[in-house]
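=== RUN LOG ===
request id: a7f3
mode: sequence -> structure
chains: 1
length: 220
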Amino acid sequence: MVVYILLCLCFAALFINREYKKKYVEAVILKGLASLCFVLLGKSTGNGSLMSRQILIGLILGCVADVLLNLRFVFEKKGKIIFLVGILVFLSGHIFYLAAILPICRYPMICALIAAAATYLLMKWIFTKITAQKAFKIFGIFYIGAIVAMNTVALCNLITDRSMFTVIYALGAVLFLISDIVLILNTFGKESRFSLRVTNLSLYYFGQILIALSLLYLLK
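=== RESULT ===
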């Protein structure tokens, strides 16, 4: 497990360096390797239960989406469609994450109401900070809605059942959400900063590593 974590962080650091230097082909390969490491981490910590398999699928979809999002820099002419497909794959991953933890949620209806309100308020704020085409905004609403719902359920599970699994999973989910907010603001905001790109990616990889590690404490 330690090897997978260290490799993930090392590949991620190299990927960020290559992207900064605009070596986009190398960056895609290194990013794929970094993401593959958190998939292998999840596979090594999983116990074969349905919840474990669903979270592993979420990790795999995250890995695929990672590669797609950076391929938009390699194939610039098709960058828009590649980006949207990548977001769709990420959305699918969040649905699997949500499906995994929803059965242990004691108050699903309350979580649904909180998630809807939180998504509305968050997107209302984000739209005041960015300029994006309609297609990106529509995808963004569904995407943020899914990850906010996942976070809401994860935090609810943490409150009602403070096990190591719920603690680590909830922390990973929150880091994932923050990383996505930073990504959106940096991609569609008035000014793009590489420092925010580093922040986005750092939070993302630590989030995925924690989600993968949470499987270690998952009971069958």
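=== NOTES ===
The first helix runs from residue 2 to 20.
Residues 2-217 form one domain.
=== END ===
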